[in-house]
Design brief:
Layout lengths: L11 E2 L2 E8 L2 E8 L4 E2 L7 E3 L7 H16 L3 E5 L5 H15 L3 H5 L9 E3 L16 E5 L18 H4 L18 H26 L15 E9 L15 E4 L5 E6 L5 E4 L5 E3 L6 E6 L1 H6 L9 E3 L7 E9 L26 H10 L9
Parallel strand pairs: 4-13, 5-6
Antiparallel strand pairs: 1-2, 2-3, 6-14, 7-8, 8-9, 9-16, 10-15, 11-14, 11-16, 12-13, 12-15
The structure holds 2-oxoglutaric acid (AKG) and fe (ii) ion.
Family: Belongs to the iron/ascorbate-dependent oxidoreductase family.
Pfam family, one: 2OG-FeII_Oxy
Protein name: Fe2OG dioxygenase domain-containing protein
């Protein structure tokens, strides 16, 4: 996402605000209700029970159908019975809590200049050009073959085209930081997410009437960006700016996002009536949402939906998003089952890497407000 703060007007009139969004194609604009968000209904962001994902083909197809319905409407759903060990998940969360409590100078030692790896401080980023700076701290990292259980024992076989995407300064972020077991526990959860995402994409194939392994060849060295995110609570402080965002409105860039959120509400999803709805935390679930590249590959059938976080509670909020993507350099066309004579492909084959680079480059360009 963008690393450059910019200012642009977000004039309010008749209960609507103009929202500027970054997309692969450039800037897009939406008039969005400025009414306070309400909670989503069970239909808008449904719970998909993944138990059947580990069953026979019939059971897998049944789960795929419920996933498809959600992916075609709001593009957001909760998953339960996802198979990720609660202890692994909470292990990473507890390390995140310890990490963000470290003195800021210590956290800043884990910042990088070449890449977006490592620590990013409070209000140092602005994801949305028409909202303010993000009131959050983050510890980020990206896919590394050496952490992927599929490749960690055959690192000499990692192709040069994959190595090319690993920045030189990546290992700096893993130096000891004062939190015992930080790297081990965080990576254990990242690995669980990676394996769940590789399973989920097989369900997506089934849902789209494709062979179950259709996308497998695109997930050998996949995108696996991860963030520990900390939205500090306001405690007894007065909220000075009711519009201040934790993370500004955006769509996720890649294939699927798996988001763990703690018990504090904050995640808002923009529905098709341009109203904000909360996707509140539900114990035992992760939130899954479709990314821009999957929307494109399905000829816009699966929806990549705008979302943001506003954290105005007294308490701190923590979340852990895992962004699953396809191999960065693989040119992929719109899938055959999402097109026909009346609905030809809207997009040329493209690589995930080139489109992401295009969108990130927008962060360095001036914004037109309409
Ligand atoms: O923290 C959250 O609940 C959502 C974060 C998010 O949307 C992102 O990092 O892309
Ligand atoms: Fe997001």
């Amino acid at each position: 996402m963008s690393t450059t703060a910019m200012s642009a007007s977000s004039a309010s009139s008749h209960g609507y605000k103009k929202l500027i969004l970054r997309s692969y194609e450039g800037y897009t604009y939406r008039d969005v209700s400025d009414h306070p968000a309400r909670d989503c209904t069970d239909d808008e962001v449904p719970i998909v029970d993944l138990s059947g994902m580990f069953g026979d083909l019939e059971a897998r197809k049944a789960v795929a159908q419920s996933l498809l319905k959600a992916a075609e409407t709001s593009g957001f759903f909760y998953i339960k019975n996802h198979g990720i060990d609660e202890n692994v998940l909470l292990g990473a969360h507890h390390k995140a809590r310890e990490f963000f409590r470290l003195p800021v100078e210590q956290k800043q030692k884990l910042s990088t200049t070449e890449s977006s790896y490592g620590y990013q401080g409070l209000r140092s980023r602005q994801v949305n050009p028409s909202e303010g700076k993000d009131r959050k701290e983050v510890f980020n990292f990206h896919y590394e073959p050496q952490f992927d259980p599929v490749h960690k024992d055959q690192l000499s076989e990692v192709p040069a085209r994959v190595r090319k995407h690993i920045p030189n300064d990546f290992s700096a972020i893993w130096q000891p930081n004062g939190v015992e077991g930080f790297k081990e526990e965080v990576l254990a959860y990242w690995q669980a997410c990676l394996s769940t995402a590789r399973e989920l994409i097989r369900l997506v194939s089934l849902a789209l009437d494709l062979p179950e392994d259709y996308f497998d060849r695109y997930t050998t060295y996949p995108g696996g960006d991860f963030g520990l995110v900390f939205y500090p609570g306001h405690g007894d402080e007065q909220i000075e700016n009711p519009d201040e965002v934790g993370i500004g409105a955006h769509t996720d860039l890649q294939i699927l996002t798996l988001l763990w959120q703690d018990e504090h509400k904050g995640l808002q999803v923009l529905n098709s009536q341009n109203e904000w709805i909360f996707a509140p935390p539900i114990p035992g679930t992760l939130v899954v949402n479709i990314g821009d590249f999957l929307m494109r590959l399905t000829n816009d059938r699966l929806k990549s939906t705008v979302h943001r976080v506003i954290q105005h509670g007294r308490d701190d909020r923590y979340s852990m998003p895992f962004f699953f993507g396809f191999n960065f350099d693989e040119k992929i066309a719109v899938v055959p089952t999402c097109t026909d004579e009346r609905n030809p492909p809207k997009y040329e084959p493209a690589t995930c890497g080139e489109l992401i680079a295009k969108r990130l480059a927008l962060g360095n360009q001036p914004v037109k407000s309409s």
